[in-house]
UniProtKB/TrEMBL annotation:
<protein>
    <recommendedName>
        <fullName>Pyridoxamine 5'-phosphate oxidase N-terminal domain-containing protein</fullName>
    </recommendedName>
</protein>
<dbReference type="InterPro" id="IPR011576">
    <property type="entry name" value="Pyridox_Oxase_N"/>
</dbReference>
<dbReference type="Pfam" id="PF01243">
    <property type="entry name" value="PNPOx_N"/>
</dbReference>
<feature type="region of interest" description="Disordered">
    <location>
        <begin position="158"/>
        <end position="179"/>
    </location>
</feature>
<dbReference type="InterPro" id="IPR012349">
    <property type="entry name" value="Split_barrel_FMN-bd"/>
</dbReference>
<feature type="domain" description="Pyridoxamine 5'-phosphate oxidase N-terminal">
    <location>
        <begin position="19"/>
        <end position="106"/>
    </location>
</feature>
Amino acid sequence: MKISDEQWALVRRIVPRTIRSSLHCSIASLNPDGSPHVTPIGSFLPTAKGQGVYFDAFNAQLATNVGRDPRVTILAVDSGVLRWVRSLLAGRFVSPPGIRLVGTVGPQRRSTPQEIQRFHRIVGPLLRTRGGALMWKSLPLVRDVTIERVVPIRMGAMTSGSGPASRPDVMASRTRADT
């Protein structure tokens, strides 16, 4: 399925907000026995439409799983307190609070200086902390992600009838199981 410009704009808004508010996205992969494995990844970046990268560090099981089966689902939820308080007070989200990105992961490759610099801008002052420097200063490897489907998170009446989540062109791939 082709990803629309509106869907991609939603991805470009929600993913950086997720990294800032939650410090990670969750990436689900499949273990060898078929059971799900969820890994927190603090470095996922959307790039060109339908594409993204994440820095391949601290995730041995995810690396093993995608080496065997590259299919993944990435969950990004904007956990910003002000966004949630405003939405709860208003009784609705103006736009979806999160998204699922369904796709596949490519092989490990060297990261570019531009990818590292872009991620460093997102984490900002956290990079200057001792822990931030330990985790994010050296990011030599990335994996490319090809995104095949964007599924906005639905939260019943809080998301119905408002924003891109209710538009048929954005939600064309949505099924009852996606809620």
